[in-house]
């Protein structure tokens, strides 16, 4: 590492907000998924490398993929999202190409970064298909870019920044509001048709379970007191978002002439893995369904609040397993869509990009909860990696990913009149 690199700090203003800059490309970073039966095992090996997942769990998860032809919907979703985002940017007159790279399957992040550099890119802005704060959804992406830059020798040549975690951006939340209102209408209609109108229904917000230790470190800077009542920014973000969705949904059904009662809801977890003795966030969605049925609930609307797009965990854990649990318990069931390629979500991604660009800048940072808007630049040590720190980009303490030449030699993506001559620290 050169002196200039180690002393380049991300130009952060207040509250982790970064000065708008000139970028020459967008990096859409995602998880990746298999695209056929032959991909399943190699993909699972990529995901679990060094993560201590028991073999039995891998075997079990491989069946979820096998049952779907070995194909996860996530890559197709991302191709459509990339196309949608490119169209949205170009409709705004913004000539930023959208490059796609995955953590666990082709196109892999290191190859995408290598190709970007060879094509003349010098400063990318990353947007991930992951909205909340925790190791898996934030730092792991930052580390994978950091490692890729180090391994390809591109650190100091290709800069990569990252947009804020966008869990409470209105364009991410609004598709859930629409979906939850529709879901409640469907489930209520089903109960009416069954001759049991006014049966109690319940909304379940579902997200990925994570180890308790990761939950406690989520979004929390090193040494910082636990200032969230729930001890976890990951949990707090989901609860605040669930409350924001329900406030709007109840207002909508009041408009639709229903009595303005608050619909009961709760946050539940899915897709637990890891060793049984390690505590993870609970309750599991299937246990919660049993309990609700025991309390006399007759219908549920399941909202995949923790997920940006359809993938195997949505198809299997919700549409297969949770649905079967509901059938067994005699509960009416509806699963709300993920934001996926909803136009409001695509518009939001373009807005999130423009929050950070010197050209077409959007100064306003909308957030639907009191927790946001989240930080552009992660605070030191947040979302800790307990398996040994790796170089990570886009943190106040990052030692990789910043630019030494500050993009002055960009050969692509520059608007002809603005920013082609970008200078330091605008
Ligand atoms: C918080 C979170 C998100 C949401 C945020 C985000 O979207 O990024 C997420 C998304 C995803 N997780 C995915 C797949 C998997 N996750 C696994 C394992 C794990 N996930 C974890 C957390 C999360 N995961 C954790 C703590 C583990 C344990 C191992 C470890 O500590 O790292 C395993 C291993 C087998 C198993 O244990 O299930 C697989 C196959 C796919 C792709 C699915 C497809 O192919 O369609 C997606 C989008
Ligand atoms: Fe996962």
Structural class: alpha/beta
Q: Estimate the helix proportion, in percent.
A: 25-40%
Can you give the mean pLDDT?
89
Structural domain count:
2
Detail the poorly predicted runs. Answer: 1-10, 406-411, 413-426
What is the architecture of the largest domain at the second tier of CATH? 3-Layer(aba) Sandwich
Ligands present: coproporphyrin III, fe (ii) ion
DSSP strand content: 5-15%
The fold-level CATH name of the largest domain is Rossmann fold
Count of runs of 4 or more consecutive helical residues: 12
GO molecular function, one term: metal ion binding
Protein name: Coproporphyrin III ferrochelatase
GO cellular component, one term: cytoplasm
InterPro entries: Ferrochelatase, Ferrochelatase_C, Ferrochelatase_N, Trimer_LpxA-like_sf
Describe this structure in words.
This protein is an alpha/beta fold. It folds into 2 domains: 3-167 and 342-354, Rossmann fold; 170-335, 3-Layer(aba) Sandwich (Rossmann fold). It has 12 helices and 8 strands. It has helices at 3-7, 40-48, 55-66, 74-91, 109-118, 135-152, 170-193, 212-217, 233-255, 285-294, 312-329, 343-354, and strands at residues 25-30, 98-102, 123-128, 159-162, 201-208, 265-270, 299-303, 332-335. The strands form 2 sheets. Strands 2-1-3-4 form a 4-stranded parallel sheet, with helices on both faces. A 4-stranded parallel sheet has the order 6-5-7-8, sandwiched between helices. Helix 4 packs across helix 12 (343-354), helix 5 crosses helix 6 (135-152) and helix 7 (170-193) crosses helix 9. Bound molecules: coproporphyrin III and fe (ii) ion. Residues 31, 33, 44, 47-48, 51, 53, 57, 61, 72, 74, 129-130, 134, 136-137, 208, 210, 271, 273-274, 306, 311-313 line the site of coproporphyrin III (HT9).
